[in-house]
From TrEMBL, chains A, B:
<dbReference type="InterPro" id="IPR011711">
    <property type="entry name" value="GntR_C"/>
</dbReference>
<feature type="domain" description="HTH gntR-type">
    <location>
        <begin position="9"/>
        <end position="77"/>
    </location>
</feature>
<dbReference type="Pfam" id="PF00392">
    <property type="entry name" value="GntR"/>
</dbReference>
<keyword id="KW-0804">Transcription</keyword>
<keyword id="KW-0805">Transcription regulation</keyword>
<dbReference type="InterPro" id="IPR036390">
    <property type="entry name" value="WH_DNA-bd_sf"/>
</dbReference>
<dbReference type="Pfam" id="PF07729">
    <property type="entry name" value="FCD"/>
</dbReference>
<dbReference type="GO" id="GO:0003677">
    <property type="term" value="F:DNA binding"/>
</dbReference>
<dbReference type="InterPro" id="IPR000524">
    <property type="entry name" value="Tscrpt_reg_HTH_GntR"/>
</dbReference>
<dbReference type="InterPro" id="IPR036388">
    <property type="entry name" value="WH-like_DNA-bd_sf"/>
</dbReference>
<keyword id="KW-0238">DNA-binding</keyword>
<dbReference type="GO" id="GO:0003700">
    <property type="term" value="F:DNA-binding transcription factor activity"/>
</dbReference>
<protein>
    <recommendedName>
        <fullName>HTH gntR-type domain-containing protein</fullName>
    </recommendedName>
</protein>
<dbReference type="InterPro" id="IPR008920">
    <property type="entry name" value="TF_FadR/GntR_C"/>
</dbReference>
Amino acid sequence: MPVEPIKPRRLYQEVADQLSRLIAGGEFKPGSRLPSERDLAQSLQVSRPTIREAMIALEIAGAIEIRTGSGVFVRDPAQSAAEADIGPGPFELMEARIHIEGEAAAIAAERLTDLDRTALEKALHEMERLAERQQSIEEADREFHQIIGRATRNSAMAAAVDQLWAFRARMPMWGKLHELIGEIKKHRDWNDDLSAVTDHRAIIEAFDTGDPQKARAAMQAHLRRVSDVLMTASELDLIQLNDKAAPAARE
Amino acid sequence: MPVEPIKPRRLYQEVADQLSRLIAGGEFKPGSRLPSERDLAQSLQVSRPTIREAMIALEIAGAIEIRTGSGVFVRDPAQSAAEADIGPGPFELMEARIHIEGEAAAIAAERLTDLDRTALEKALHEMERLAERQQSIEEADREFHQIIGRATRNSAMAAAVDQLWAFRARMPMWGKLHELIGEIKKHRDWNDDLSAVTDHRAIIEAFDTGDPQKARAAMQAHLRRVSDVLMTASELDLIQLNDKAAPAARE
DNA sequence: TGTCAAAAATTGGCCTGACCACTTGACCAC
DNA sequence: GTGGTCAAGTGGTCAGGCCAATTTTTGACA
């Protein structure tokens, strides 16, 4: 039973939490104005400086916006997202993955442990199982790649790989990759073996050589193939992509 | 000419920034106690509630810990990193930068605009100016590298570069790189020209060729040199690094 | 001389009341 | 319709006060 220091709860935190709950509960809608500091201080029976402290915490947390002379306004979550940029388009993401995950694979090639290999094999088997059932391999796919990020034994590299997958998780389109491949085969005489399982097997085999160059090449070949799938699906109008999703602009 | 809303700068933010800079600059060591609220209010010629607001912001940011009745203490970045388990060590960061920023430079080499080049030159001049005054080039350095991230015209790559710099910003040690170089020269007959300005100039010249390989090589040479500085400083006990900061473990 | 409890001093936490800067809406002149 | 002025309301900051928590000092005692 670990003993931890007792940290008395600051009053401003109580106020901030209550206001946060009221906002989350819909009492104060996004874009609306909160009651004035003076009114809140009276309603909550605390001093105005305490309200101000709570407001600062909420503004830092992104929940509100304080406008001098006007009032305090609830931030619109959609507005926050729009301001924060919706993230990279699919082709941007693929390009970045080719470069960054290629490097991660190269680093990992010399640092994989037996545990890493076991985990990769497990993820691959999961992909095989799901593919046989015509189910999305998305989760197992992600696991496979994040194992590689961790296998670099470099938390900055792992974080970079994780971030790429976080971007990817925002686009539901990726979960349909398997279906897309099936659709493409209906339209074109596709020679390449598009099996994700084959690609991932090749990556594992490259790791078995311990050669960073081979690992990088296997990873990049895999990711370029996925990018090609995306390009072909776009050309066949199997998926709708917005402007940002177009291949990265060349000056 | 886009018109943007003017956001007046809150006094508590000025105070928080100044204290943050003092902490980063080593004026207040990790674990040490800041002057009392009353003393700070008098020293900075602001009211005590304003100091309190600044303290709240700094505590939320993780820079300090407020202990009722005792005082306000600077959090140990290593302790913070250990608690949050989110911070790569310096060598991890450098390794990741060599790989990721090398790739970013290669991509950017074919996509730089004239505006990008102008911005890079400007950042370089700022570095020159600061270096002449023996001042930290940290901000201009960061700007230089983030311009390159944006010059990839790939927001996933830019985000990856930004994340590396966010990690870097958590370690005040980097602001003292210039001093470290000076110290190293007192201890060793160092043959390499350690001028950051020279390295960055070489990167710009590599970009002028438009050759991705050359750009990658110039960026990686620069970052490897920085990593060497770090290694040497560590060997000379000029900086104290915790276990995680050691060169990436090899299995 | 060392230990321990109590007192004093210091520090953060919160409050009250005041004044100033900024914003908004109403109203008026041109 | 536009610009200017004014009043009311809002946030921003200040000064001073008192209380709770912590640390330091002091005095008593073995």
